Amino acid sequence: MSRVYNFSAGPAVLPEVVLEEAAAEMMDYNGTGMSVMEMSHRSSAFQEIIDTAEQDLRDLMGIPDNYKVLFLQGGASQQFAMIPMNLMQNRVADFIVTGQWAKKAYQEAQKYGKANKIASSEDKTFSYIPDCSDLPVSPDADYVYICENNTIYGTKYKELPNTKGKLLVADVSSCFLSEPVDVTKYGIIYGGVQKNIGPAGMVIVIIREDLIREDVLPGTPTMLTYKTHADAGSLYNTPNCYCIYICGKVFKWLKNMGGLTVMQQRNEEKAKILYDYLDSSSLFKGTVVKKDRSLMNVPFITGDKDMDAKFVKAAAEAGFVNLKGHRTVGGMRASIYNAMPREGVEKLVAFMKKFEEENA
Ligand SMILES: *Cc1c(COP(=O)(O)O)cnc(C)c1O
Fold first, then answer.
1. What is the structure's pLDDT at 147?
2. CB of 178 within 8 A of CB of 269?
3. How far is CA 237 from CA 55, 96, 192, 223, 306, in A?
4. Owning domain of residue 215
5. What is the longest distance spanned by two Cα atoms in the chain?
């Protein structure tokens, strides 16, 4: 067996111990004589898996009792529609557009009401987070929407926007569980799990109970109504059972690592190794305003497309894979999620230094 260092933005690296455990339980989960993939979602064995996963997530994030945790399908993208369908009672919502994912959510919401772009960083290719201390929040806005960590551009809000009393809704797909979070500051926090938690095909939605309502927009499908899933404990229909099981294992892993405060410390140390090198390199440089740099997604360039391509190829040959930047921005991007070991980042930087010497 030979494992690479996988810097993919998603689906992404998972903790090896989690993969090993899943492999060991593949043929016989906990004496049931079957794989979790073969198991009824109505079985007591699966009920225990989903209940434990939810409780561990609640422990990790300190989720208050007046918030529900939903394990849903359709990925993060489905939430771009589900949020307005469930929350846009006034048919008005405000968006801070800091990248492609926020932009997609903003565009989708326009189908359901008036979506206002109250701030944007598109003027500088989304390389920074706008000042959000005094934005023109609409008086009748149902919510203010952000994408908290911009996976493609590598920026992160270091401070939440001042929503002037309006509900905050955040897509945290690529920073989920990377650091402690105050859930009470949000109406909804959600994220696709394939970035920093588990396999693809599921989104976790953490939603304040009073936002789970029956008076959703007319025509909202049953499957896209939060109440359907909240009332059924995410078992209205067959959920992504195997994904829930793997996410549950990752939650246990995070607890064993010491929880989100420890993860934040590790993530800061890891990111610093790479950013410090980028700041000192004469070949590579980061593309993001320093104060807004993400701990999870680190884009960088040489300034020469051919050199970028040469680097990506040489890196892959040396076992550092998926470093090519997003197809819309080019250059390179190293995604260094929770499961990327510090050693992976150290070795990548050593490789970059060597490449820089050889290509000076
Ligand atoms: C990847 C990503 C999405 C899209 O996720 P899907 O599960 O593929 O729909 C949305 N938002 C952010 C921030 C992402 O990184």
1. 98
2. no
3. 21, 34, 19, 9, 49
4. 17-257
5. 64
pLDDT tens profile 66-87 = 999 999 999 999 999 999 999 9
Structure tokens, 10: 């998603």
| Cβ atoms 142, 134 nearer than 8 A | no
Residue 196 Cβ contacting ligand 1 at under 6 Å? no
Assess whether the C-beta atom of 75 lies below 6 angstroms from ligand 1.
Answer: yes
**3 belongs to a structural domain:** no
Q: Which protein residue's CA is at the shortest distance from atom 3 of ligand 1?
A: 76
Dist CA 284 CA 278 (whole Å): 6
240: domain CATH number is 3.40.640.10
Taking CA atoms only, the protein residue closest to ligand 1 atom 8 is 75
Tell me the CATH number at 313.
Answer: 3.90.1150.10
The total domain count for the chain is 2
Q: What is the pTM of this model?
A: 0.98
**Residues 302/284, Cβ–Cβ less than 8 Å:** yes
Pocket test for ligand 1, best of 98, 146, 151 (most atoms within 8 A of CB): 151
User: How buried is residue 65: exposed, middle or buried, by Cβ count under 10 Å (0-12/13-18/19+)?
Assistant: exposed
| Token pair listed for 29 | 């989960």
Helix (H) or strand (E) holding 21: helix 16-24
The 10s digit of each residue's pLDDT in 209-249 is 999 999 999 999 999 999 999 999 999 999 999 999 999 99
Torsion of CA 115, 118, 122, 124, to 10 degrees: 180
Strands (E), 164-202: 168-171, 188-192
Atom of ligand 1 nearest to the CA of 75: 7
**287 and 219 both lie in a single domain:** no
What is the edge-to-edge ordering of all strands in the sheet holding 285-286? 285-286, 297-301, 332-335
Task: Please give the positions annotated as active site.
Answer: 101, 171, 195
Are 217 and 88 a contacting pair, CB within 8 Å? yes
Residues 291, 189, single domain; the answer is: no
